[in-house]
Amino acid sequence: MSSLTTEILVIGGGSTGAGIARDAALRGFKTLLLDRADLATGTTGRYHGLLHSGGRYVVKDPISAKECIDENYVLRRIAADCVEDTGGLFVETEHDDPNYAAEFVAGCQRAGIPIQEIAPGEALRREPRLNPRIARVFWVPDATIDSWKTVWANARDVQIHGGSILSHHKITGLIREGDAIRGAVALNVRTGESITIHADYTINASGAWAGQIAGLAGLPVTVLSGKGIMIAMNHRLTQMVVNRLKRPADGDILVPIRTVCVIGTTDVRVADPDDWPIEEHEIQYMLDEGEKLVPGFRQARALRVWGGVRPLYQPPSLGAVSDTRDVSRTYTLLDHTDADGLSGFLTMTGGKFTTYRQMAEVAVDAACRHLGVERAGTTATTALPDSEEGRFYWLGARLEKREQDPHGDQLICECEMVTRQRIVEAMRLRGGDLDDIRRTVRLGMGPCQGGFCIYRAAGLGHAHAIAAAPATNAHLQRFVTERWKGVQPLLWGDQLRQAVLDDQIFQGLLDIEHLPGWDSVGSGAPRSAGRGDKAAVRPAKQPSGSRKRKTQTGGDA
Amino acid sequence: MSAGYDLIVVGAGYAGLMAALTAQEAGRRTLVIATGNGGTHLRTGCIDVLGYIDGKRVDDPVRAAAQLASARPTHPYATTGVEALGVALLVFKQAMARAGYPFEGDGHTALLLPSALGAARPTALVPRTMAAGDLRRPEPIVVVGFDNFKDFYPALIAENLERGGHRARAIMLTAPGFEHEADLPPLTLARAFDRAPFRSALAAQLGPRLRSGERVAFPAVLGLTAALEALADLEKRLGAPVFEIPTLPPSIPGIRVFNAFDRLLRAAGARVQIGHPVIGFKTDGLRVTALTSQTAARDRDWACDAVVLATGGVASGGIVVDSHRVAREVVFGLPVVAAVAPPETVNGLSAPAAYFERPTPSLPGLAVDAALRPLDATGTAAYLNLYAAGALLTGAEPWREKSSEGISLASGWRAGQ
Ligand SMILES: Cc1cc2nc3c(=O)[nH]c(=O)nc-3n(C[C@H](O)[C@H](O)[C@H](O)COP(=O)(O)OP(=O)(O)OC[C@H]3O[C@@H](n4cnc5c(N)ncnc54)[C@H](O)[C@@H]3O)c2cc1C
Ligand SMILES: Cc1cc2nc3c(=O)[nH]c(=O)nc-3n(C[C@H](O)[C@H](O)[C@H](O)COP(=O)(O)OP(=O)(O)OC[C@H]3O[C@@H](n4cnc5c(N)ncnc54)[C@H](O)[C@@H]3O)c2cc1C
Fold first, then answer.
1. Which domains does chain A have, with CATH numbers?
2. Is B352 on the interface with A (CB under 8 A)?
3. Hey, which residues 514-553 in chain A have their CB within 8 Å of chain B?
4. pLDDT (0 to 100) of residue A85
5. Do A484 and B55 touch (CB under 8 A)?
6. pLDDT tier at A396 (50, 70, 90 boundaries)?
7. Does B24 touch chain A (CB under 8 A)?
8. Could you report the predicted ipTM of this complex, rounded to two decimals?
9. How far apart, in whole angstroms, are the C-alpha atoms of residue A403 and residue A423?
10. Residue of the nearest CA to atom 42 in ligand 2?
């Protein structure tokens, strides 16, 4: 078994883990950030996209509200390139309790969230698609933030500061010496090899999986999973974030992010963070709630549905919780030295994307204390790579770049304006897995969901010697399978038509089911697959009783 | 109101065009009305009849279609009958030959053509511009692409062909005269191939790199209006057989088919109106007596004796499904069968039917009687003089089994009788 040595090992490459790793690396620790899949494919890559002002929590969860507004300001400074300064509205519709507004205003004042009441007529002038029957409207400093970009920027800074990233490595055990954790054992899920990682300090930042990781050290930590689903609609139906002015509930926020807007979400407790359903009634509920905010919502084109699981820490004192929405959204540091007498190990879980940096700072502060070193955190004032100039992202950025040289490069993905050069660069960095590339450059995330651009991207990867034909074929087949998961529940309207056109392209025109290396008999499953493409090596027919499909999150079958 | 038509065909894909041509050439006054272009512009430009049954590649498409029809009575071939398929293929071939865009193949031999990924794709009739691509021929293939055309990747095609047991290699060129345009649209490239100077510049670059005995594959953009001339000219200049491989829409070969139909229809005296949605209809008892279409200035009624509905199903907007999953046939509001059910509602995405394991068939469509008349809710013909054809018919898996054009031509020919 090969081995690695580091000072700080961070388990979990979501926003929390990436933030912790960057914080530690900036303080001069030799740092290793590890995830069982690609970075930001856990909850962080499946969230709603909102850089909270805190307004949502002012009545119910004021501590969380305060954390949000503080960090909202910080992230605008240090992660400007990932943030779009959309602003947000809280609107009282005819379905909402008119008494809530007073509580909301008082709560915002207590938390220090600047708000401004605007006349409904003015709100409608700025957001013409809004429900015209809104009675009261408040502006708040909500914004949207791209979680992939943020995590990648944090990871890049880790590398810049001498640390390293290990993706597709799953922690299978912790190394325990007496009353201390001295690192972990990880399994490379693509090669099947195990590796020992010796670390002075290990930080568990595995979100909803934090209980599982702590369990490897024999610690009984309960982290509940609160599932939420979201649907991306083809247009930005509003340009600002729109929240319902009421106690947090399901389907009450519409978030414009990049080229789409996302309606969400739900909160249902699930037993296994790796296995949960998206149900038809949830989809219908999102559409019904969408109608209340934007009449005609159901006629808009639904692009893709996905879901994520909130890590909700349940202190032993709390007893059984039935509604996960009642668990606080604030974060939890479990200092296993103080609480359990086990040194070299702590867990940071719960919280929000919005508060990731603060969570990271608190976690590394605790680690420093236990390691007996004094090094102050600097992440609150040190901009992330590409955010140094403090310029916010704006929707027209890609178009603006393109307009300067309209014939200079090929547009491989027309929907998301992704150029050939960008794709090839991303592939050189990250390999030819088209789903990884999708998350990196938004390839195939628009209306056609890859119908046109994925053939092109596969061809480019092959032409630039990033993957030979068998791997390219496997990447294509895997992409098509992955895409289908998020599209299949939304087969109506224009998206159904698009899905049929995409079938026509993949099956009818390209005959993707009969590429060499595929079994031409039976349902056309691949006989061999490219490097580590687990989704592509599934047997042709799964027994229908087998409901566990865990390949989505990157191969922890 | 204009003088009546004997037949109005709604839809201008393979099925509608075939129905219209059949009727007009039988001496019936025919009008084609369509919202836009149909399947021709989206697909390969080949005539698929049946490529696979239960995942097994077939050798004789028409015979296999007969087998399928008797094994699966709900399949459109069971309704159209396989005799109609045979006749329709013949009629289509003759028509295209007359229009100067000849097809090859007889329907009884599966032709294997390289797909734009390098898979061996079975089909039944191919335009002459693709005929030399048949993978049962022995000559090694040189796949030629252009780095300023993004819809075709010769190296990937060649490597997959090699792995499939065919000799192939790739050459990448820059389309001559377009060195400063990185992103050539297919229509621009096709129009370039129509011009002799472009072809000669291309041949000058390519010729010296060819080896004797090879055949040359291009993306399917070998000319829009002068494809046959372009093909012959290139073959002469290169001294090698040349063929096209169809790629992403818009389909140049499909556009040629559309244009050929359009020429024949107009020459025979039919009227073709593209860009005019049908928005209503009039009836007298169980007969449709007129259709209303939307034109620029006003809505207009067209009297008729019979109607063929060939609006193309979900793919072309002939059937729409709303967010409550209710499906609707858009012109006549006919009942739709096999509507897209939501995925197993309870298990939802935790067990998504994986793309390549999907059950059959999933597309909504119309049920019809033996005369191809759509059924109403009671199971009898909704109207005595309304017929349906093409992708509107339910019961096929057109892209997976590779049967789309065959179904359209057979049902279009029957409906046009
Ligand atoms: C539906 C929904 C909507 C939300 N919307 C918002 C929002 O709009 N704004 C906001 O601020 N917050 C939002 N949140 C909350 C926010 O997304 C999460 O709090 C945050 O992303 C959690 O990040 P994390 O890094 O702690 O967890 P994760 O991103 O889940 O990271 C944990 C990582 O650990 C890895 N891991 C697990 N097990 C192992 C193992 N054995 N070995 C190695 N690695 C392992 C996983 O692969 C994963 O990548 C939302 C949450 C949900 C569920
Ligand atoms: C802020 C934001 C904006 C987005 N904007 C767009 C957009 O514009 N266009 C677009 O196409 N997509 C968009 N997405 C969605 C994105 O493309 C992905 O669908 C999402 O990040 C989930 O990742 P995935 O599809 O790789 O998940 P996959 O793993 O491929 O999952 C696909 C679906 O399977 C289900 N699933 C996954 N894991 C499990 C499990 N363990 N158990 C049960 N079910 C599971 C989920 O419901 C998921 O939606 C956006 C996402 C975010 C966070």
1. 2-43+148-223+326-371 (3.50.50.60), 79-143+225-325 (3.30.9.10), 397-551 (no CATH)
2. yes
3. 514-517, 520-525, 538, 540-542, 547, 549
4. 97
5. no
6. confident
7. no
8. 0.95
9. 18
10. A275
